[in-house]
Write a structure and sequence with these properties.
It contains 22 helices and 13 strands. By secondary structure, it is α/β, with parallel strands linked by helices. The chain folds into two domains: about 260 residues, 3-Layer(aba) Sandwich (Rossmann fold), CATH 3.40.50.300; about 220 residues, no CATH class. The strands form five sheets. A five-stranded parallel beta sheet has the order 4-7-8-1-9. It has a two-stranded antiparallel sheet with strand order 2-3. The chain has a two-stranded antiparallel sheet with strand order 5-6. A hairpin with a 3-residue loop joins strand 12 and strand 13. Helix 14 runs antiparallel to helix 15, helix 19 packs across helix 22 and helix 21 packs across helix 22. The protein is elongated and about 95 Å long. The mean pLDDT is about 85.
Length: about 500
């Protein structure tokens, strides 16, 4: 059900596909009424059928069921061209590519046509001449729904020829034709998307004259190429993506084009950590193909996701740029890789992630955030570490709010110190953690119900280290690169006496 629609969207069996125009007209396996529909009507019918059958509309897109998806449905049902406005990493491109699901699985086209001409209503001169010459013997090809989706990333160097087309001197020379002949045109991406979907990513980055070139196709439904006295009434759905700030800023997108867009649909980041975790788990490559099993405990997955939520609310991070969902995705992949490296170095059968692996993923975090002036003063590495600390603190509160951690704190206040090495084997790290009074008794809160009774050494180490990091995040204990975990307040033996006042000397 994920990749197919029912009813009219189903494909024609290969053995029953007509191969000529005449066979198509008399075929019982294909309804010619479909060829009289526009692409927007076709998508309307298939969408309504999917809604009635309660099929998933955008598989793999989470958190939009009550916000973005209903607006997209309304735009398609209204036969509107539309734009998705949102910051980076909000699944805009994935949604646009998912629109192809509402096209028929395949449609007949005149074979060899560059713009996918309708066999019953060709619009290009070459196809009209072929039909006049071949009649019902004109060959027919079948175009899949994936081939009917054309996407272009807007960049400042995109030309009008890229989008609409231009004169092809080589074609004119080979055919012995005059440059004013319509048959010398090399069609651009937009005409080649005829009878399909044409998507432009980052629309405001298109030059103004290119945006003007989209006017006719959006309003009048035709396109003019290089000043030729010809009209191509293209049948196409136009969809775009844009950053909200660029879209509304003066000079980024011209007003007449904005006025011709039927619907502006705002995307957003996941509303809850759970939604974000579902996206990250779906997209991140964590099932490695090696012999070692990689495991990231649930509380660490929450920490990784919470980092993105903390960054989106941090005043030191540029909110206009946004914090992409790619941040937790790449961070989770880096965490797994660091755990995998440690397991390989120590010849351990499984790679179980620890909080130290989250800090090892700093390069995947700092590259995904753009800082304001205050953040630049602090430095990306410092800001990222503080985001991790805040995330750990929030997840720690969720799991260990009622835990008795006073014995752990007391152990450090009595002079205990612990420095765990990032690459230390699980057995060695567990031996160190066992020395801390009352620590491992609380790890059951992080290991689940039944599984907590049989936690492996690696799982226990991961849980114990997380508890220590959570205590540090809440400033119940201290931590430094030199000493590791220690008491938040100096030990009594380390407290210095106040310096004696110098005696006043009299002359």
């Amino acid at each position: 059900m994920r990749g197919k629609m029912t009813g009219s969207a189903s494909s024609v069996p290969v053995q029953e596909r007509p191969s000529t125009l005449g066979a198509l007209k008399h075929a019982k396996s294909y309804d010619l009424a479909k060829l009289r529909r526009s692409v927007k009507d076709e998508m309307r019918e298939n969408l309504l059928r999917a809604l009635a059958a309660k099929q998933p509309l955008f598989p793999g897109v989470h958190g939009y069921d009550d916000t973005v998806v209903p607006q997209i449905i309304n735009a398609i049902l209204a036969r509107h061209n539309f734009v998705l406005l949102g910051l980076r990493g909000q699944a805009k491109s994935r949604i646009l590519r998912g629109l192809a699901r509402f096209l028929d699985e395949e449609i007949p086209v005149l074979e060899g046509c560059e713009i996918n001409d309708n066999p019953l209503r060709p619009i290009c001169r070459a196809c009209r001449e072929r039909l006049a010459a071949d009649g019902e013997d004109a060959p027919i090809a079948w175009l899949s729904r994936e081939q009917r989706y054309v996407e272009k990333l807007a960049t400042p160097d995109v030309t009008i020829a890229d989008i609409l087309g231009d004169v092809d001197p080589i074609r004119a020379a080979r055919g012995g034709r005059d440059l004013s002949d319509e048959l010398t045109i090399h069609y651009g991406l937009l005409p080649r998307a005829n009878r399909g979907i044409f998507a432009i990513n980052e629309l405001p980055d298109l030059a103004g004259k290119i945006q003007v070139g989209l006017f006719n196709i959006m309003q009048e439904g035709d396109v003019q190429i290089k000043g030729y006295p010809l009209r191509l009434p293209l049948d196409v759905l136009l969809v775009f993506t844009a950053n909200p700030e660029d879209y509304t800023a003066r000079g980024k997108i011209i007003t007449p084009l904005k006025d011709r867009v039927g619907a502006e649909i705002r995307t957003h980041y996941p509303a809850t950590v759970e939604e974000g975790m579902a996206i990250t788990a779906q997209e991140a490559w964590t099932s490695r193909d090696g012999s070692r099993q990689a495991e990231v405990p649930g509380y660490l997955r929450e920490v990784i996701e919470e980092i993105a939520f903390q960054a989106r609310n941090d005043k030191r991070v540029d909110h206009r740029s946004g914090v992409s969902q790619r941040l937790p995705i790449t961070s989770l992949e880096s965490v797994v890789s660091n755990a995998e490296q440690r397991a390989a170095r120590n010849s351990e059968p499984s790679a179980i992630a620890r909080i130290a692996d989250v800090y090892a993923a700093l390069p995947a975090i700092t590259g995904k955030i753009e800082l304001e002036y205050e953040g630049e003063l602090r430095g990306a590495d410092t800001v990222a570490r503080e985001l991790i600390r805040a995330a750990v603190g929030k997840v720690f509160t969720k799991y260990l709010a009622g835990a008795n951690v006073q014995p752990v704190i007391q152990w450090f206040e009595n002079g205990g110190e612990l420095k765990l090495q990032e690459m230390s084997p699980a057995r060695e790290a567990l031996r160190q953690l066992e020395e801390i009074e009352g620590l491992l008794e609380n790890t059951a809160r992080l290991g689940g119900d039944e599984s907590s009774k049989r936690m492996s050494a690696g799982q226990t180490v991961s849980a114990g280290e997380f508890i220590l990091e959570g205590l540090w995040a809440h400033r119940r204990i201290g931590r430094s690169e030199e000493r590791g975990y220690h008491a938040e307040k100096p030990r009594p033996t380390e407290q210095r006496e106040p310096p004696a006042r110098p005696k006043r000397q009299f002359n």
